[in-house]
Amino acid sequence: MAKLSVLVTTTADQEFRSSVVRALRSSGVPLGVVEERDSRTDVPDLVVVDIRGEGSQGLQSVERLRAKWSAVCIFAVAGSSEPDVILQAMRAGANEFLAWPTTGESAPRDTEGFCSALTRIVERLQAARGNAASTSKTFAFFGAKGGAGTTTLAVNCAAELARVSKRPTIIIDFNPFVGEVALFLGVRPRFTLLDAADNMHRLDDQFLRELVAKHKSGLDILAGSDAMDRPNGQDGSALEELLQWIGRSHEFVVIDAGNLTNPCAEVAVFASDSIFLVANPDVPSIRNAQRVVDRMEDMGAGKDRIKVLLNRTSERHIIAPKQIEDALGHPIDHAFQSDYGTVSAALNSGVPVALSKGSLLATQLVEFTRGLAGLPMTVETSEIGRSRASLLGLF
Ligand SMILES: Nc1ncnc2c1ncn2[C@@H]1O[C@H](COP(=O)(O)OP(=O)(O)OP(=O)(O)O)[C@@H](O)[C@H]1O
Ligand SMILES: [Mg+2]
Q1: Which helix (H) or strand (E) element contains residue 171?
Q2: Is the CB of 344 under 6 A from ligand 1?
Q3: CA-closest residue to ligand 1 atom 30
């Protein structure tokens, strides 16, 4: 899950908001940007308040937020570092202060200094939370191109995680319009992600339980939207908050994020502990994967969080794995065999691939999932995995 939740308040300057969010993202610490709600219990970890400009609106916001959340870390951003301004901010209740002078209208100067100050605070907060932080892990699956097998791997990995870990696990379908997660699992959901996004003010554990559908493996499913144009960019902050909430009740959160053009892809990128990029061993897929990795890195996702999954490999390599790794500048984290019979049998029966006996693909999925759950490999799995993997000549 996003480890820290951040609220950014500004009276007018939306540019300020996006600059602060960009600066926070560049820290590399997974965090979620949330909206302010009436609830006094949903306390963010950090509040960044814009106190620049004439009048005392910003300072009033600091006072109000301090009265609302006595323990929250409030970071006041002023237009100058005059001693008077600092004093007023501290008196109002800010615990951190930073001057972010503007040139002309609102373009900020010294963005680097600002970013590194924010990064230091975010890292400190993160360290202070340490072991107290939730142990929940979020895994987002993205496709390098359509049809790469993103939903297949996300769904099977989620069902296997629920089965082997016996811990609360959920899969969330971020795809706009006809996401296929529920279909792949043979479940008919009554509600979708949009019912959650549109009712954030009602969200509590009970409400969440009503929204999710159950798979027989124990997996919870928050099904994909049935609206053509949603989730869209406007749903981003609700989804960030939803992930924060879900991370409190679920130990493993799997997101089928579709591809990077999904308007809510950014939310999945920043909320995830690991980002799995699913590619096939063919030229268009590798070329797209290369671009997606670059774009994700530009967005601020550290290289170590991005993991490449090569799906649909076969004995006859069209492109050698080493060549693929060189082209991507990124190692292949796991490879999954092309096995249409097993995948389609699983799809038709609603029984996850990992349960199909005697298939290398099932072994690879079990091995991959146990790694995610931090479980040791079974003797049987490691032996079959090793012999078959060497057969494929992949690792
Ligand atoms: N390892 C595999 N071996 C054989 N077939 C596979 C494998 N993985 C996925 N497929 C098949 O590839 C097709 C596309 O899979 P899937 O729907 O999971 O891809 P996707 O990336 O989610 O597609 P979309 O971009 O439409 O969301 C399906 O028919 C699926 O059964
Ligand atoms: Mg899909």
Answers
A1: strand 169-173
A2: yes
A3: 149
- The residue length of the chain stands at 395
Contact yes or no for 161/220 (Cβ under 8 A): no
187 backbone dihedrals φ, ψ, rounded to 5°: -120, 140
Strand pairing report for 137-143 and 274-279: parallel
Indicate left, alpha or beta for 120 from its phi (over 0: left) and psi (-120 to 50: alpha): alpha
Among the bound ligands, the one closest to the CA of 353 = 1
Question: By C-alpha distance, which of 369, 392, 391 is closest to 162?
Answer: 369
* Cα(278) to centroid(ligand 2), Å: 11
* Ligand 1 neighbour 192 (Cβ under 6 A): no
Q: Which residue has the tokens 């004439």?
A: 54
Amino acid at 159: A
Within 8 A by CB and 6+ apart from 115, the residues are 23, 26, 27
Pick the CATH number of 4-132 from 1.10.3380.30, 3.10.180.10, 3.40.50.2300, 3.40.50.300: 3.40.50.2300
CA–chain centroid gap for 76, Å, is 27
150 alpha carbon, closest ligand: 1
Q: pTM of the predicted model, to two decimals?
A: 0.78
Residues in contact with 206: Cβ distance below 8 Å, sequence separation at least 6, in sequence order:
none
Q: Which atom of ligand 1 is nearest to the CA of 258?
A: 27
The domain segmentation of the chain, as residue ranges, is: 4-132, 137-392
Taking the C-alpha atoms of residue 165 and residue 174, their distance in angstroms, rounded to an integer, is 24
**149 within ligand 1 shell (Cβ under 6 A):** yes
Among protein residues, the one with the nearest Cα to ligand 1's atom 23 is 147
CA–centroid distance, 80 to ligand 2, in Å, is: 49
Q: Cα–Cα distance between 18 and 152 in angstroms, integer?
A: 35
pLDDT in tens, 48-107: 999 887 667 889 999 999 999 888 889 998 888 888 888 889 999 998 888 876 654 454
Encode pLDDT of 101-133 as tens digits. Answer: 665 445 455 667 777 777 787 777 777 765 455
Asked: is 137-392 a CATH 1.10.10.10 domain? The reply is no
- Residue 172: how many other CB atoms lie within 10 Å: 29
